[in-house]
Amino acid sequence: MSLILAKVQAWITYRDTVRELQYLADKELADLGISRSDIKDVARRAAQ
Predict the structure, then answer these.
(1) Where do the YjiS-like domain residues begin and end (predicted)?
(2) Which of 18, 24, 36, 38 could form a disulfide with 43 if both were Cys (CB 3.0 to 4.6 A apart)?
(3) 39, 21 in Cβ contact below 8 A?
(4) Segments of the chain scoring below 50 in pLDDT
């Protein structure tokens, strides 16, 4: 897989993860052990 393709796929994963987590209610995020301020960090780790 080319480096460019890998970067694009990682970005798509990051974007989709942020979008999905932002739609959750605060209680749902808390049930997952995630605070709203952690969403971008969680998405970054998911994309790696």
Answers:
(1) 5-39
(2) 18
(3) yes
(4) none
